[in-house]
Specification:
By secondary structure, the protein is an all-alpha fold. The chain has one domain (about 10-40, about 50-520). Helix content is about 70%, strand content about 0%. It has 21 helices and two strands. The protein has helices at about 10-35, 55-75, 80-110, 115-125, 140, 145-160, 165-190, 195-205, 210, 220-240, 245-260, 265-280, 285-310, 325-330, 345-350, 355-375, 380-395, 425-430, 430-460, 470-485, 495-525, and strands at about 35-40, 50-55. The protein has a two-stranded antiparallel sheet. Mean pLDDT is about 90; it is low at about 1-5 and about 520-528.
C-alpha cells in the first residue's frame, strides 16, 4: 500500500515561523510592559530613558479593555444599524484625530531644533537658491538621505510661506488622521468581523503619541501615512488582484522611503511576502511586482538626487557610511545601550576627514570587536541587548513629549517664525493633564502588546495566508533592525501604529472568549 507524501507548503511554513517569532517578541514586550516602564525626566533635561517598576499599568489596562468591550457592544447593539454606526464612528474618530492634532499644534507651538532645524533651514535656503548645505563638510554632505525630507519641506514652504512651520505641522495632523483612515481599510481587508473594525477605531482614537507627533517638524508622521497606504494597496493587490493597486503601492512605499529611510523595512516585508507567494502559489507575476517596487523606490531616489544636483550644479556626496550607525548601536553611551553617543560624527569627521571608505572600514572593525566582546561575555551581552530593546519598545510615549517640547523661548530659530508658548500650551508638557496622559499611555501600551499576543495565541493553529501577517512582519523587521541600528524610542512609533489593527483583532478574540464562557455558564445553569 503506497503512502501519500505530503508536499511541502512554503507559504504555510513561512507563516508558521513568523507566527512563533511574533509570539516570542510579544511575550517579551508584554511581560516587560507589565513589570516596568521606561520614561524621560519631566524636566526634559536630556533624552535619557530611565527605568522604574510600574504595576499600576495592569489595572488601568484592564479597566480600559472593559470600557472598550462595553463600547463595542453598545455601538453594535442593533443589527440593522451596525454598518451605519460603524461608518458614523469612523467619521467621529477621524474628526477627533484632526481636531486633537490641530489643537495640540496650535497650543504647543513647538519649534524645530537639532536635526529638525537643520532640515528646515536647508529647505528655506533652497527656496532662495542657496545650496550651501550640500557642500563639503555641511549638513547634507553628511546626510544626503535627508534630501527627500528637505524637498518635501521646501514644497510646503513654497506653497504656505518660507517661515510657516505651523502649516507643516497641520499637514502632519492631517497625515495622522489619514493613517487612521487607511488603517481602518487594512482592518476591513484582514478581518471580516465589524467588531474588530470598531475596536480598531476606538484604539486609534486614543493613540495620543501619533497625534502629538503632529507638532514634530520631521518626516515621521507622513512616512507612517505613506507606509500604511503601501500596506493597504499591497493587500488589495494580493487579495483582490487589483492591478491598479500596484501603482499606489509603489508610490506609497517610494514616498515613505524618501521621507524616512527606515520605511524600507516595510518594502522588505512586502517583497518577502510576494517572493514566498510567488514560489508557493506559482504566481510569477508577483516577481514582476517585486521588480516594479524596487525600481520605483530606487528610481524615485535617483530622480530626486539628479534634480537637486542639476539645481545646485554639484554632485551629491555619498554621505556618512551606514555601517557607523550600526557600530554606534553596539556601543554603550551616556544615554543607554546603543543610543546616540557621537561616535559616527567623530569617526567620519574628525578621524577620517570625510573619507567614506576609511570610515566604513573603521566601523566594520568596531562591529567585529563589539560582537566578540558581547559573545565572549554572554551575561553582559544579554544585559546590553535587553537594555537596548526595552529602552526603545517599553517607553510608552515613544518620545512624543521630549521630541516636541522645544518652543521659541527654549531654542527655536527666528527663521521659523516661532512664538512663545502660552501657559495653556506649557501645561500640555508639565501640568496635571500631561501626567495623566503619560500614565494613560503606559497602560495603553500594555493593552496593545497584550492584545496582539492574545491574537497570536488564539490563532496559533489557524492557517492564515502569509499576507495576514504583513503588519507583524514589518514589526519583526523593526525589532531586528533597531537592535542593530542606533537606538531611540521615537523610531518605534511606526511599528506601534502597525500593531493597532492586530491588537483590535486580539480584543475581538478576547470578547469572543469571554462571551463564549458566559454562554457556557448559562447553558450549565439551565441544565441543572
Amino acid at each position: 500500500m503506497s503512502r501519500k507524501r505530503n508536499s511541502f507548503n512554503l507559504e504555510y511554513f513561512s507563516g508558521y515561523v513568523v507566527h512563533w517569532l511574533c509570539i516570542i517578541v510579544f511575550v517579551l514586550l508584554t511581560m516587560s510592559a507589565f513589570v516596568f516602564t521606561r520614561y524621560f525626566s519631566k524636566d526634559y533635561q536630556g533624552e535619557i530613558p530611565h527605568n522604574r517598576f510600574d504595576f499600576l499599568s495592569l489595572p488601568i489596562a484592564l479597566l480600559l479593555g472593559m470600557l472598550l468591550l462595553i463600547s463595542v457592544k453598545r455601538i453594535l447593539k442593533e443589527e440593522a444599524r451596525r454598518e451605519r454606526n460603524l461608518r458614523l464612528l469612523l467619521i467621529i474618530v477621524l474628526g477627533w484625530s484632526l481636531i486633537f492634532g490641530t489643537v495640540w499644534v496650535l497650543l504647543a507651538r513647538s519649534e524645530p531644533v537639532s536635526e529638525q532645524i537643520m532640515v528646515v533651514t536647508s529647505a528655506q535656503r533652497f527656496l532662495e537658491g542657496n545650496y550651501g548645505r550640500l557642500e563639503y563638510g555641511k549638513y547634507l554632505f553628511y546626510y544626503p538621505f535627508q534630501l527627500g525630507l528637505a524637498a518635501w519641506e521646501e514644497l510646503v514652504f513654497r506653497i504656505f510661506g518660507a517661515n510657516n512651520v505651523t502649516a507643516f505641522q497641520l499637514l502632519n495632523a492631517m497625515g495622522a488622521t489619514g493613517s487612521i483612515g487607511i488603517g481602518y481599510c487594512i482592518v476591513r481587508q484582514l478581518f471580516q468581523e465589524r467588531k474588530t473594525a470598531v475596536y480598531y477605531l476606538l484604539l486609534s482614537g486614543i493613540c495620543f503619541p501619533l497625534f502629538i507627533y503632529s507638532a514634530y517638524v520631521y518626516g515621521d508622521v507622513m512616512s507612517i501615512l505613506l507606509s500604511m497606504l503601501g500596506i493597504w494597496q499591497f493587500l488589495r493587490y494580493v487579495k483582490k488582484g487589483k492591478k491598479s493597486s500596484l501603482i499606489f503601492l509603489t508610490a506609497g512605499i517610494a514616498g515613505a522611503a524618501i521621507l524616512r529611510n527606515n520605511s524600507l523595512i516595510v518594502l522588505i516585508a512586502i517583497c518577502l511576502v510576494l517572493a514566498v507567494q510567488m514560489l508557493g502559489r506559482r504566481r510569477w507575476q508577483y516577481g514582476i511586482c517585486i521588480l516594479i517596487l524596487l525600481a520605483g523606490v530606487a528610481g524615485s531616489k535617483q530622480i530626486l538626487n539628479r534634480y537637486y544636483e542639476q539645481r545646485a550644479g554639484m554632485k551629491l556626496n555619498d554621505g556618512m557610511p551606514y555601517v557607523l550607525w550600526i557600530a554606534m548601536g553596539m556601543q554603550e553611551g551616556e544615554k543607554e545601550a546603543g543610543w546616540y553617543n557621537g561616535y559616527s560624527i567623530y569617526i567620519y569627521q574628525d578621524v577620517c576627514k570625510y573619507d567614506g571608505l576609511a570610515a566604513a572600514a573603521i566601523g566594520r572593525a568596531e562591529i567585529r570587536s563589539r560582537a566578540n566582546e558581547l559573545l565572549l561575555n554572554p551575561a553582559y551581552g544579554l544585559d546590553f541587548c535587553w537594555r537596548k530593546f526595552t529602552s526603545q519598545w517599553n517607553e510608552p510615549t515613544y518620545g512624543c513629549f521630549i521630541m516636541t517640547y522645544a518652543s521659541a523661548e527654549l531654542g527655536g530659530d527666528d527663521k521659523t517664525g516661532g512664538r512663545e508658548r502660552s501657559s495653556a500650551g506649557d501645561k500640555l508638557y508639565t501640568g496635571a493633564f500631561h501626567t495623566c496622559l503619560r500614565g494613560f499611555m503606559d497602560a495603553y501600551q500594555l493593552l496593545i502588546y497584550a492584545a496582539v499576543l492574545f491574537l497570536l495565541i488564539r490563532k496559533r493553529k489557524d492557517k492564515e495566508p502569509l499576507e495576514f501577517y504583513i503588519l507583524l512582519i514589518g514589526v519583526l523587521g523593526g525589532v531586528l533592525f533597531h537592535m542593530m541600528w542606533e537606538a531611540k524610542s521615537r523610531y518605534v512609533l511606526p511599528y506601534f501604529v502597525m500593531m493597532l489593527p492586530m491588537a483590535a483583532g486580539g480584543l475581538y478574540q478576547m470578547q469572543e472568549m469571554i462571551q463564549g464562557r458566559g454562554m457556557k455558564d448559562e447553558a450549565a445553569k439551565a441544565g441543572r
